[in-house]
Amino acid sequence: MAEPASDGQEKTEEPTPKRLEKAKEDGQIASSKELFVFSTLFVGFLLYLLLLPFMPNILMEWASLFRFSGENGLQDETFRNLSSGFVFIFWKSVIFAFPLLIVVILTQMTMSGSINWSSSALAFKGNRINLLKGLKRMVSVKALVEMLKAIGKVVLLISAAVLVFAWQSDTLLMSQHTHLFGGLSRIGDVFLLLLIVFLLVLAGMGIIDVIWQQYQHTQQLRMTLQEVRDESKQTEGSPEVKAKIRRLQMTAGSRAKQRKAAMESVPTASAIITNPTHFAVALKYEVGSPGAPLILAMGRGLQAQEIMEIGKTAGVTIFRNELLARALFFAGEIGEEIPPPLYAAVAAVLAFIYRLNKEEDVEAPDVDLPDEMLFDENGKALS
């Protein structure tokens, strides 16, 4: 059954990678005490086997710490032996402690997949000292499971020990009929067998506990459907925003295609009206054709310079008129006819260019524009 969230919704969804990563940052990772117990005991057992040939020398070194000749003074020998004893204990402890430390780190890496260091897990949390929450944790299902695990572990280990001693009872009883070292050897064999059985029991419990802890960890991090949606919005943006971005991208792509097509059509233009450098509008008109002149391309700044360069290369006549260039740029649209209020002005310009191309001696026309077609360089009406 899915665990209910604080808002009443059930946590039915598997935790997302972002949720798992956030849990790691907060120090919330799966961990198995039984696996730690097994791994440390197993490594300790291997160290015991490796150091077994050196045990006589170690025991002799330890025994030497309790010999006092009195030749150099009993007090001096006592302090010297105490100092040697501390050094002996320290280095022998390091031999066991260092491998155990490594195996603890590797065990946690096996559980979580990496070494996890979380500073937030060390931070003070006031809710941890809440008496009611503390009592709730003590009587929770998790606490009950932990208690049953502890009882089960004790029962299994005691049962395993009883079975081993019952199985090896003849060996233990016969130890009294042999010499001292023979009896100690038999007891050592039984002790070794007992350790192996304990390791097998702990290995089985460790595997079961790892599966349980992973299940519990996943259950605690499960999310409601609304939490998954909210996280998706935070990560990828809301559907409305994404749709708006797609529209803008499509618009930008369409404008880029339109601009490219417009630039390709500039060489076929009848004239280019400029400002003289800030604006450029390419017009096309076939004499005798119905309709008004078409706007093939227009631009400002660098785009205007590009239109004029293409026009010069193609031999298109460039006519400079500041107000007309602005009017066409701000009132017209690429691919459409020029605005009706500009018919007369554009007709006069095209007629001048037509006669000029015929190599007639003509003067540039005075272009008069309606008041509503007068703009400054920012597209603001001058009237």
Q: How many domains is the backbone divided into?
A: 2
Main sheet characteristics: 4 strands, mixed
> Major sheet: order of its strands?
5-4-3-6
Please write the string of helix (H) and strand (E) elements: EEHHHHHHHHHHEEEHEHH
Helix segment tally: 13
Q: How confident is the prediction overall: mean pLDDT?
A: 78
Binned strand content: 5-15%
Percentage of residues in helical conformation: 55-70%
Low-confidence stretches: none
Strand count: 6
Shape assignment: elongated
Q: First CA to last CA: what distance?
A: 75 Å
Class of secondary structure makeup? alpha+beta
Radius of gyration: 46 Å
Describe the 3D structure:
This protein has two domains: 13-118 and 128-225, no CATH class; 262-373, 3-Layer(aba) Sandwich (name from scop), CATH 3.40.1690. It is elongated, with a radius of gyration of 46 Å. A four-stranded mixed beta sheet has the order 5-4-3-6, sandwiched between helices. The protein has a two-stranded antiparallel ribbon with strand order 1-2. It has 13 helices and six strands. It is an alpha+beta fold and 383 residues long.
Question: What characteristics describe this protein?
Answer:
single chain; 383 residues; alpha+beta; name from scop; four-stranded mixed beta sheet; two-stranded antiparallel sheet; 13 helices; elongated
